[in-house]
Amino acid sequence: ADNDKRQFSDLHFPEKISTGLASAGFLRPSPIQWAALPLAKIGVDLIVQSKSGTGKTLVYVVTALNMIDTSVSAVQAVILTPTREIAVQGARISLDIAAASMPDFKAATLIGGMSVVDDATKLKRCHMIVGTPGRVRQLIDEKYFKTEAVRFFALDEADKMLESSFKNDVTWIYNQLPEVKQVMALSATYPESLANSLTSLMRHPQHVRLDTASQVLIGLDQYVLHTTFHP
Prior knowledge:
Layout: H1 2-5, H2 15-23, H3 31-41, E1 46-49, H4 56-67, E2 77-80, H5 84-101, E3 107-110, H6 116-123, E4 128-131, H7 133-141, E5 152-156, H8 158-161, H9 164-176, E6 182-187, H10 192-198, E7 206-209
Parallel strand pairs: 1-6, 1-7, 2-4, 2-5, 3-4, 5-6
Helix pairs in contact: 2-5, 3-4, 4-5, 7-9
């Protein structure tokens, strides 16, 4: 019952954030948002572990929007995702929340298959990028993406991002960013391999995870159907 009374306004974010959340239709934080956002707000490195569909995207979006200064025309937040679709979704949510109270905010997706020239144009007037590692690395490498103003770095689906197919690019990108920054890893699972990989990217991270009863969104029922084996 207490969960039903919680509101984003109870988290005491600046007005630009609370107004933006309300305008975009986000009124009540999910359990993982309620647990993670107060820690994210004070700048600690965070490992946010929660199942898909429980609202992890909003954790990194709100954290990024809270620290971005739109009077500075430079990329200040970098979020890496394993797929184009997840990147587009993250950028879309950030723009929805910023629409009402941060009119100058610009977010862009940097994903493979799109024009590098267009991406270079976007980067000239952008505060936050959400992208896939290969394209982000290419744009930094080709000097289109200046990273010196970045203060927030997040890995969405971090368990996938630090598998062998992405790990080299992710590590390379991390090493091009300023030394002082907040790092966040969001993941549904937390295997030992992920824990080991994150130790080199984070400083004394807080691990936020919920008990199993809180991991399902309210209003969602989950069922298991046992079937007989078939070859």
